[in-house]
Amino acid sequence: MTFEVTGPEGLPALPAAVEVAAFRIASEAMTNVARHSGATRCRVAVEVGGSFELTVADNGCGTDRTTTRGIGWTSMRERAAELGGSCTISSRPEGRLVVRAVLPLSDNDGGPFAEWLWPRLGMSYPSALGWAVEIENAAEKSGTSGMELFFTLLDEFRAERDQPQDPAAK
User: Bridge-partner residues for 43, per DSSP?
Assistant: First the structure.
């Protein structure tokens, strides 16, 4: 399989949360191409303007309506949504699959999830690599995978965030 990567010569400094989300979305999309598509070519394109835009497209078999959407597709969409962005996954009539993520750059420090997560990892404001490494280290200590721990933490964050507030506590 041939991977073709295109993008700007140099990238501006990106918020840590955008770096992590872009890396994880790209790696999941490329893994899916290698495992499931039967493709001979995969194109990864990056564009940066008011947002970070990532497109992963292949020349493989695509998908049909009977394909089960697994945790990978869900995780790509959730990663983008957590930052106020989007991730679409579409199959073209001629059989190829396209994953497109748009992640906002302005005022994006990782948002409420990052503010909740970082103290639990013992960090104040880590780099994207620092964040990923700390999750992997914590996962190793607990005997689980980094991805499983990430989603466990995300579920805990959502449960706390969505818990009804006691008006008397204000």
Answer: 4, 57
**Residue 64: what pLDDT?**
55
Q: Which residues pair with 88 in a beta bridge?
A: 100
- Please give the pLDDT value at position 66: 44
DSSP assignments along 121-167, one per residue: TT-SS--HHHHHHHHHHHHHHHTS-HHHHHHHHHHHHHHHHHSPP-G
pLDDT > 90: percent of the chain:
14
Pick from 1, 65, 77: which is nearest to 38 by CA? 1
What is the DSSP track for 15-27?
-HHHHHHHHHHHH
Domains in the chain, CATH or no CATH each: 2-104 (3.30.565.10), 111-162 (no CATH)
The segments of the chain whose pLDDT lies below 70 read 62-70, 94-95, 106-114, 123-132, 165-170
Cα separation, 150 vs 45, whole angstroms: 26
Extended beta strands in 23-77, E state: 41-48, 51-58
Question: Which distant-in-sequence residues (6+ apart) come within 8 Å of 155 by Cβ?
Answer: none
